[in-house]
């Protein structure tokens, strides 16, 4: 299926489709630079702007300064709790644990339903009248064909199925999420939008993989986009500050941006914070990497490409509190420039669904259920996996400045795509298998203050092929990394990337392939100014 396929910073369908047809893949760039007491207390009045006190922007600066002073780091980079913070409705940083329902009311169900329909109509209109795509020539005949012949596993390209459809699903999801519906309440709208498109939006038969990816990975991306835009928005601001926030939030979550205009929220002014916010730290990486192909594992052999990587860490996993879906998440994206048409090398991440915290002396632990999304699309292999499972994130403090962070996860994989024996997708049709299975992930980082960090990441995927050449795949990915501070938050680093794939096929010889990369990069750590400290 050729549903909407677009990057985060481009929402115009024409440009997206043109790039797809020219065999280009643009980064789905999720990016922004802005981003307990023993008894319950009243909400601190420092969060509220008072008209009698003059300039609102000056008051906002004073509020931030007061919070920074109130919640200065104590030992181990953990802010102190304060009697001025009501931990039943605020986190330890003084920010809301939930959107204020007085200012973010729940709209009637027909409104998000109509908007979901509008997303499909808009997408189809561009496909039909601008691009004149063959699949868009729909009508009673195609609708009858789809209903009579039922469902299939489609043959669309890897990027369309594992990035394009999740992005479309995020728009369905946010049609409801941005109109006062919660995470779980918004998922049915992604289901409905996908079903409507599968049966009525194109001439090809509805496909199982589209419905799964659009719904589940759509909710994954949709909630992340919603949370990131909330961290930018502040209805207390005015002037150029406000304009910048509205534009930036709208680029990250276009459906929410449209709804804010329709609801009048883009222009309203409140005297207090009305959106949930969590710590948001951003790490930017830029450098070069050597890609060793054809089972070469020798250092420094193969083509050289430029890389840009963005890592977003949202939420503090070691704050003791109740958690809703995606109160904590990590998202990484990496662009690769140089040889070949592949631009989006990988997009990986996880989000907590529910969890609890505990402490054992110097050890802090978050454990719970997580959702996982993995997308690898490069010169030598493709791998997309949707996972649900359990995990734990830990921090062990050897001293105030020496900490060991570790995360371990095990998850079931109901749907995965994996490049077949002939390599990655270089055509306009499917050149990969559909699979299920399970995955295991371990990441560990030792930090010596801000001066040196040494990390090791290991991902394992066991995939059983149910569409494609029958068999099982064992995929191992290892990523040791070392970074050393140059000045302040700027560091230089080296990473060795190792990929192994062992395929055991029915009635065919096994296939064993490997690939390595060496990456040299500069990294810039952009710390949330009001919520200091590395969290994971």
From TrEMBL:
Residues 150-255 form the DUF3943 domain. It comes from the Bacteria. InterPro entries: DUF3943 (IPR025079). It comes from Mucilaginibacter gilvus. This is DUF3943 domain-containing protein.
């Amino acid at each position: 299926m050729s549903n909407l396929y677009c990057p985060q910073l481009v929402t115009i369908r024409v440009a997206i489709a043109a790039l797809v047809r020219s065999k280009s893949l643009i980064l789905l760039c999720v990016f922004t630079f802005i981003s307990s007491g023993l008894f319950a207390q009243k909400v601190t009045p420092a969060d509220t702007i008072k008209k009698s006190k003059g300039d609102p922007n000056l008051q906002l600066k004073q509020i931030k300064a007061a919070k920074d002073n109130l919640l200065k780091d104590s030992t181990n980079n953990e802010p102190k709790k304060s009697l001025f913070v009501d931990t039943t409705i605020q986190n330890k940083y003084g920010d809301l644990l939930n959107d204020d329902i007085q200012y973010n009311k729940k709209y009637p169900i027909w409104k998000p339903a109509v908007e979901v329909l509008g997303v499909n109509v808009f997408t189809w209109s561009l496909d039909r009248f601008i691009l004149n795509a063959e699949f868009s020539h729909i009508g009673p005949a195609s609708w009858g064909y789809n209903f009579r012949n039922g469902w299939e596993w489609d043959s669309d390209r890897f990027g369309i199925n594992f990035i394009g459809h999740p992005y479309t699903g995020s728009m369905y999801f946010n049609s409801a999420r941005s109109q006062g519906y919660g995470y779980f309440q918004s998922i049915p709208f992604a289901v409905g939008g996908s079903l409507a498109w599968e049966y009525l939006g194109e001439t090809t038969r509805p496909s199982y993989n589209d419905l799964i990816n659009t719904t589940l990975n759509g909710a994954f991306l949709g909630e992340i986009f919603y949370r990131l835009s909330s961290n930018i928005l502040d209805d207390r601001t005015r002037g150029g500050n406000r304009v910048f926030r509205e534009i930036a939030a709208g680029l990250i979550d276009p459906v929410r941006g449209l709804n804010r205009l329709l609801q009048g929220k883009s222009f309203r002014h409140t005297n207090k914070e009305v959106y949930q916010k969590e710590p948001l730290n951003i790490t930017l990486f830029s450098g070069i990497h050597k890609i060793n192909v054809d089972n070469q594992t020798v250092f420094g052999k193969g083509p050289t490409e430029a890389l840009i990587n963005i890592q977003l860490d949202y939420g503090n996993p070691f704050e003791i509190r109740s958690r809703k879906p995606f109160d904590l998440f990590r998202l990484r994206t990496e662009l690769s420039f140089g040889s070949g048409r592949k631009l989006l090398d990988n997009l990986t991440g996880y989000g907590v669904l529910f969890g609890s915290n505990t402490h054992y002396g110097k050890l802090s632990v978050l454990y719970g259920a997580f959702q996982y999304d993995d997308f690898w699309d490069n010169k030598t292999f493709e791998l997309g996996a949707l996972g649900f499972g359990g995990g734990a994130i830990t921090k062990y403090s050897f001293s105030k400045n020496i900490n060991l962070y570790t995360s371990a996860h095990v998850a079931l994989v109901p749907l995965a795509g994996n490049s077949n024996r002939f390599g990655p997708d270089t055509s306009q049709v499917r050149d990969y298998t559909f699979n299920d299975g399970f995955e295991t992930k371990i990441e560990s980082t030792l930090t010596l203050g801000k001066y040196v960090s040494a990390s090791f990441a290991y991902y394992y995927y066991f995939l059983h092929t149910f569409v494609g050449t029958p068999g099982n795949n064992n995929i191992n990915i290892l990523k040791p990394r070392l970074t050393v501070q140059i000045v302040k938050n700027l560091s230089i680093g080296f990473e060795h990337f190792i990929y192994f794939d062992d395929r055991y096929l029915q009635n065919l010889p096994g296939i064993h392939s490997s690939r390595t990369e060496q990456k040299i990069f500069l990294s810039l750590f952009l710390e949330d100014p009001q919520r200091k400290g590395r969290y994971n």
